[in-house]
Specification:
By secondary structure, the protein is of the alpha+beta class. 43% of the residues lie in helices and 24% in strands.
């Protein structure tokens, strides 16, 4: 078949084929050059364009050390071509975006920039081709989270052309620190504003106060002078006091002692009192001569009970010397918060007073013995006269005899009290103890009491309690307590005696329904020679009954006390150790 195309058309087609052949030869030559470059290790990666976009293919053998360094960087690193496509990205960049590198390489970098910062990045990217640049923007991760970063853009001149290297530093922690710092700055500014306001107010206040202060400085100076003078006077008073003064801490250590304190205790001026409870140079003793325990010292008592002690007598036995006696007043010292920090004690030598008491007691003892002999003889004579009475005497004789016997009994009781008091003071009271049923003892004692018809004694309680006691002495205590109830609670027609077990003790209570005892009187009821005188009424007696009762109970190892409220009657009680079963 003959080709009908013209000569001109054939020439044109031939020319076209020749051109395409030359192009293919050029491409073949370029491919050959690329293959040679790959073989010679001159190519790191290839960027291929496909339907899914540009893809980067790297060669394993190229610059391995450099790649390891880039991969271990804490910053993200990417390489862009002139179109902004990602030719390479390290794993840290993928971590910033929380995205796999396969989904990053070959894509346009701007797609990973937050939408609000894209125009800024394009401007920065374009400017960076002229010179290296830096900037800050936010990347947008695959889940839409924003990551603030700092960009450092540097031009790379490669064999295949110009590229852009970007180093990305994560600013998340820095931005958070800046945010916190900004918040703190706001708070600080608010505080400064408040401070300035306060300072303005303070300045006004200071001006007013300064004026007042200037007016009062002179007066304060005078007060300070007076205070200093008072302190000096107080110091002189303490140094010249006729009483010893000591300040003691909780351990008994003496913080301060004036000269008289040292003198009373027989120390020289240069010697110091170390411990008021325990000092090798002397021994603290009770009035009976027993060693005084540290916790029974009046200073220890006032510190533990937080109450002052007044006129508390103890003996001081020097290591080499004659025993003497002191009377101590003690009180706690408190700080500005009311807490006790130490104690102060003042004391004076009362040896002479103690000797006077001993002489008085000795006199009482001698007088009692001297009185007891004729009184006993008189009592026997009266009893004999009564027995010899034939009934012929007048009614007056009987009345006088009865009155004489009552008076004789009263005198005998007074003499017995004086003798007992003398024995207690001299530590000569001896007990004749026997095991006895307490309830039966009290019942027998009450039967022997001669009471007027209007009084009634009622007993109740435990009838099985046994005690080891001096029965005669305990009867004396009971009689004193019952007579005391009759004397001071005459309106109480019933007197109740209650006996009960109180742990290892037997407790006896004498209860009346009288007018009660004033609170200020109660602490002194068991003092020697103390007599209650309610409403101006006079009662007979020496004020020794309760004192003697107290000493008898203490000698038995028990305790004695009273509970009373005005208008509600009184309860006098004592305890005794129970006998072993």
């Amino acid at each position: 078949m003959k080709d009908k195309r013209s000569h001109t058309e054939l020439l044109a087609e031939l020319q076209k084929l020749s051109t395409e052949l030359q192009a293919k030869e050029i491409e073949l030559e370029e491919a050959t050059d690329i293959i040679d470059a790959i073989r010679n290790g001159e190519v790191d990666a290839l960027v291929m364009k496909s339907g899914q976009g540009h893809q980067l293919f790297t060669l394993k053998s190229a610059d391995q050390t450099y790649r390891i360094f880039i991969e271990q960087m804490t910053e993200g690193a990417v390489t862009l071509n002139s179109s902004g496509n990602i030719l390479y990205a390290n794993s840290q960049f993928g971590t910033l975006l929380n995205t796999l590198l396969e989904k990053i390489t070959g894509h346009t970098f701007v797609n990973f920039v937050a939408e609000a910062d894209r125009s800024y990045f394009e401007s920065l990217f374009e400017r960076s081709w002229q010179h290296n640049s830096k900037g800050e923007l936010s990347l947008s991760g695959i889940h839409g989270n924003l990551v603030p970063v700092q960009l450092s853009l540097n031009i790379l001149s490669l064999d295949e052309g110009m590229s852009m290297s970007i180093i990305l530093t994560d600013l998340t922690e820095q931005k958070e620190s800046q945010r916190l710092l900004y918040q703190k700055n706001i708070e600080l500014e608010a505080a400064h504003a408040l401070t300035r306001k306060f300072n303005l107010h303070l300045e006004e206040t200071v001006k007013l106060r300064t004026k007042d202060l200037e007016n009062s400085i002179y007066q304060k100076t005078l007060v300070e002078r007076e205070l200093r003078s008072n302190q000096e006077q107080l110091s002189r008073v303490l140094e010249t006091m006729a009483e010893g003064v000591t300040i003691i801490d909780f351990g008994g250590n003496v913080i301060y002692a004036n000269p008289m304190a040292k003198k009373i205790l027989g120390l020289k001026d240069e010697e110091n009192i170390r411990n008021i409870y325990n000092d090798a140079r002397w021994t603290n003793v009770t009035l009976d001569g027993d060693v005084l325990p540290a916790d029974k010292h009046p200073v220890a008592i006032t510190l533990s009970e937080e109450q002052p002690m007044h006129d508390y007598e103890i003996g001081i036995q020097p290591a080499n010397g004659e025993r003497f006696y002191i009377s101590i007043n003690a009180a706690p010292i408190r700080d500005e918060n009311g807490e006790i920090i130490s104690g102060i004690a003042t004391f004076m030598d009362v040896t002479h007073r103690r000797k006077v008491f001993e002489q008085k007691d000795e006199f009482i003892s001698v007088a009692s013995h001297e009185l007891k002999t004729p009184i006993t003889s008189l009592k026997a004579s009266l009893q004999l006269l009564r027995r010899l009475n034939t009934g012929a005497e007048s009614e007056l004789f009987h009345k006088l005899m009865e009155q004489a016997n009552k008076s004789m009994n009263r005198v005998s009781v007074l003499i017995e009290d004086l003798l007992n008091t003398s024995k207690f003071t001299g530590g000569q009271l001896h007990l004749n103890k026997n095991k006895i049923n307490l309830y039966e003892l009290i019942a027998g004692c009450c039967d022997e009491l001669r009471l007027e018809d209007q009084y009634c004694i009622t007993m109740r309680g435990d009838k099985t309690l046994n005690v080891e006691i001096d029965a005669y002495k305990i009867e004396q205590v009971l009689i004193n307590l019952i007579n005391n109830a009759i004397k001071y609670a005459s309106e109480s027609l019933e007197i109740l005696i209650n006996v009960e077990r109180f742990g290892a003790l037997a407790k006896v209570a004498v209860i009346d329904k009288g007018p009660g005892i004033p609170p200020e009187v109660v602490p002194h009821l068991f003092d020697r020679y103390y007599r209650v005188d309610p409403a101006g009424r006079q009662y007979s007696g020496l004020g020794l009954g309760l004192y003697i009762s107290s000493e008898i109970i203490k000698k038995h190892g028990g305790q004695i006390g009273v509970e009373s409220e005005p208008g509600s009657g009184s309860t006098f009680w004592f305890t005794l150790p129970c006998a072993p079963q």
